Amino acid sequence: MKDNLQIEPLNLLWLQSGGCGGCTLSLLNADxxxxxxxxSGFGIxxxxxxxxxxxxxxxxxxxxxxxxxxxxxxxxxxxxxAILRGPYGSGGFHQTSGGDSMxxxxxxxxxxxxxxxxxxxxxxxxxxxxxxxxxxxACGLQxxxxxxxxLLGSDYRDSSGLPVINIAGCPxxxxxxxxxLAALATDLLNPQSLDSFQRPRLYSDHxxxxxxxxxxxxxxxxxxxxxxxxxxxxxxxGCKGTQAHADCNIRPWNGEGxxxxxxxxxxxxxxxxxxxxxxxxxxxxxxxxxxxxLPIDMPKAWFVVLASLSKSATPKRVKxxxxxxxxxxxxxxxxxxxx
Length: 339
Hints:
By secondary structure, this protein is of the alpha/beta class.
C-alpha cells in the first residue's frame, strides 16, 4: 500500500560570524550538481544564508525573528565563524541589522534549535579569528581552543539532546558538511557519532596520513627538504598528517587533491589550536634531531628505532625520488613467472 504521508522538511538557518566565509566557498564545491537540490533531496529547506540567499536584510531579519519566537520551527542552526564576545563581554564588535549583537542572537537561536552545528574550526574552537592576543575575545560555540565552554557552555544540549556538532576544518571539506546534515535529517547522528571534540566521526576517525600518496616515503623516512620535493613532509617540512584527524587523502578535495598532494604540509586545521603551533607552519620543530610532534599512538622510543631501521633500508629509488620534484627512478620490473 502506498504511503501518502507527507514529511515536513527540516528548516536550516545558516549564519556567519567572525570569519572569512571560506567554509561556504568550500561548500559550493561539494560533489553534487546543485547544492540546494541536494539539501532538498535529504529533506532540508534552507531558510536563509547570508551569502547565498536573495532576501533583503529586512526580509532576512523577519525570517530570523520568526525562528527566535517559534513562529518558524528551527531544526538546524549552522554557524560559520567565531563568536565575537568583545568588548568586555558585550558582543558589541558584531552588531546585527536588528540592533542586537550576533552573540545574543546566537544564544537565543541555540535555545530553540533542534540541532546546533559549528561549521569550520572558527565556529567550533575559535580558530584563526581567536589567534594572537584575541582582541575581539573570539571563541567557538562550545569550545575555546581545546577547553569546553565557549559561548554556550559545556552543559549545552540542543532540544534533541546533542551537544554542538563541530564540523572542524579550515575550511571544512564540503562533503563533511553535506554528510553531517544528511545524518541529522535521517536521525542517524547520535552522541556516539561524535568524537571527544564533538567532531563527526564519519571523518574524524581517520588521520590525514591515511591514504597519503607520500606514504612510501614516510615508511622509509625518505624526507623532502624543500616544498617541491616528492618525499615525506613530516621530518622537515612541518607536516602533521600523522596527528590530524581527517580523511582528506581518502576522499580528496574536488575528487582530486589535498594539501599534501599539492606539495604543502598538513597544518592540522581540524584540531583545536592549530592556528598557533608555536613554530612556522612549514618547519618541523625537533628536540635532539627528533620531531616533537610524533605520530598518534606511537611511543617516542619506537619511533626512534623504526626511523633508524627504515632509513638504513631505504631503496635507492625511494631515496632519490624523495628529493626530486618528479619521479627520477621508476620501480623495477620483475618477472612474475616462477623458475
